[in-house]
Amino acid sequence: MKRRVTLKQIAKELGVSVSTVSKALRNSKEIGQETTEKIQAFAKLYNYKPNSIAISLQNRKTKNIGVIIPEIVHHFFTTVITGIEKVANEAGYNVIVCLSDESFDKEVINMETLANSSIDGFIISLSKDTQKRRDFHHLREVINQGMPLVMFDRVSDEIYCDKVIVDDAQGAYKAVKYLLDIGCKKIALISTADYLSVGKLRTMGYKNALEDSGIEYDENLVLKIDDMDYCQEPIADLFQREKFDGVLAVNEIFAVTAMREAIKTGYKIPNDISFIGFTDGLLSKHFYPRLTTVNQHGFEMGNIAARMLIDKLEEIEEEEHYRTEVIKTTIVERESTRPY
Amino acid sequence: MKRRVTLKQIAKELGVSVSTVSKALRNSKEIGQETTEKIQAFAKLYNYKPNSIAISLQNRKTKNIGVIIPEIVHHFFTTVITGIEKVANEAGYNVIVCLSDESFDKEVINMETLANSSIDGFIISLSKDTQKRRDFHHLREVINQGMPLVMFDRVSDEIYCDKVIVDDAQGAYKAVKYLLDIGCKKIALISTADYLSVGKLRTMGYKNALEDSGIEYDENLVLKIDDMDYCQEPIADLFQREKFDGVLAVNEIFAVTAMREAIKTGYKIPNDISFIGFTDGLLSKHFYPRLTTVNQHGFEMGNIAARMLIDKLEEIEEEEHYRTEVIKTTIVERESTRPY
DNA sequence: TTGAAAGCGCTAACAC
DNA sequence: GTGTTAGCGCTTTCAA
């Protein structure tokens, strides 16, 4: 086992000073050609690699980006991370991922740890817990310290920073319109609790679309589910209780669970009933029938979020100027709405 | 925007020396109580947080763990990451995730960047490309430099280090036995290319189980698919070509694609034909019918991998002693093999 | 053309 | 008890 060589060691071996080595390795024209060559050859031989910690300390930049998300076992978030990684790596940044596990406390702890000079900036999507409490002091704090922060998807109006979101309301609106267009008359909505920004916005889109089409909003057709792991029962119950011929679900799990109930109930999809879900993940692509979805373009979101952050870090974008980028959702048509 | 305070600033403000502040903040009994209190109060007021970069430089530890995986949009890998995060965070480590994107070159680049003092140790699962080329010089290099490395799932015999794997062969063996037990007579295998350690091992398990049960291995019932995104055609073809009443698939996508073909062909699942897949992800849990799977316990794998690495880092485990932990797969029975 | 010295923020051995 | 000094690995004046 050979330890990494340092500038100092090279300098000693070669009988020159540390600063000479440092300069030579970076091709400074201050240093004579002969010396430069000698030093570079030696460095190569011993496989010299600059210590990035020392460099970070020196110029107070880490070239690390901190990403805090609620969970990673979730197709949408992983596509966003993939998008962040791509842009970040291309710009020479590493990505440190922390999971808040939907908990406010963990979110705060993660932010604090990372903020202590582990990273240059944050990309974050709020935990459910944080959205419920509406306590954003930890975000304010890092912003105050001059650390750039970009929020995506689960954002808050109360914080001024760059944001990337999808047009959740519009997306839901388009989905409902689409269902109406293909002939649905009664459309159910399976959503999450309202304190989640996305749940609320999508519900709004649903309502607006109905209204604009002169259809009365019927509370009985709307389900608000809090716990993802416990959705089958309320959904089955909905099918017992009501008759409808279209379903909009705010995620693919709800959508697929509903399709299962529909099939069990004896409906033919999409002939008797059509389905659209948010989150264009594996389930949507592979379920039978495949699910028509509102694609949130997670990869692009990640790209943009990373781009925004890096622009701030490298001062391409001025500090006090905040943008909110809204990504257009698109509908991916599949078997759950289109005869196949 | 207020910059973070440093020890130096506190020292200056309070008219004491830096080392006094440093000691006082860490409750050294060398420092008088009065001074200590004064300093701590001041630090608290100005929200002093030690600069972790400086500390890293000082003790040549970063408290970061580097994780390199082929992709993140993959249920198995995300569960492993979740497992790693948990153990790592509890031990005060951050996790830096890098994606190799199944490419050898990216894997090498990622390793090199991280190895330049960004992290204390690696957890890695090899890219397909690396397994195909059998070029492991980058792994050897970091090990040589004294950086601990733990491999999981996609490992190589040629490298000496700690490893966490599942009993892939055994898992496949058990799955086939299970299918035979519930009455299957002809079992097809849908696998990946053989250069992937897991594909090979699972195929081996399949063969052994048949052999031990006195059933002849029939090449025509075995599919080797290289490209995940292009599996429907060969699978459909298999259903055209052959008759069988059981299927073992090495991942849930293949399994689910096969179920779709079976249903289209008019089979009833599980009455006419039964299915088992590896990877116990969302698809398995939510498909209709739900898929019986060989669970690889990704979360536990992550836990163990992180534990192993940290034990090495904190010298709880001696340097030159390498373990290979084999995790037992378990079969999760669901609707695809059991009448419901 | 080269090198000495200071400094990034912190810790620790050793003086006072 | 408190301070001085050196040093982690590197960059960057500034002097020689």
Automatic annotation (TrEMBL), chains A, B:
Record keywords, A-Z: DNA-binding, Transcription, Transcription regulation
Organism: Abyssalbus ytuae
Domain annotation HTH lacI-type: ranges: 5-59
PANTHER family according to UniProt: HTH-TYPE TRANSCRIPTIONAL REGULATOR GALS (PTHR30146:SF109), LACI-RELATED TRANSCRIPTIONAL REPRESSOR (PTHR30146)
Annotated Pfam families: LacI, Peripla_BP_1
Domain HTH cro/C1-type: 2-53
GO MF term (any one): DNA-binding transcription factor activity
Stored InterPro entries: Cro/C1-type_HTH (IPR001387), HTH_LacI (IPR000843), Lambda_DNA-bd_dom_sf (IPR010982), Peripla_BP/Lac1_sug-bd_dom (IPR001761), Peripla_BP_I (IPR028082)
Protein name: LacI family transcriptional regulator
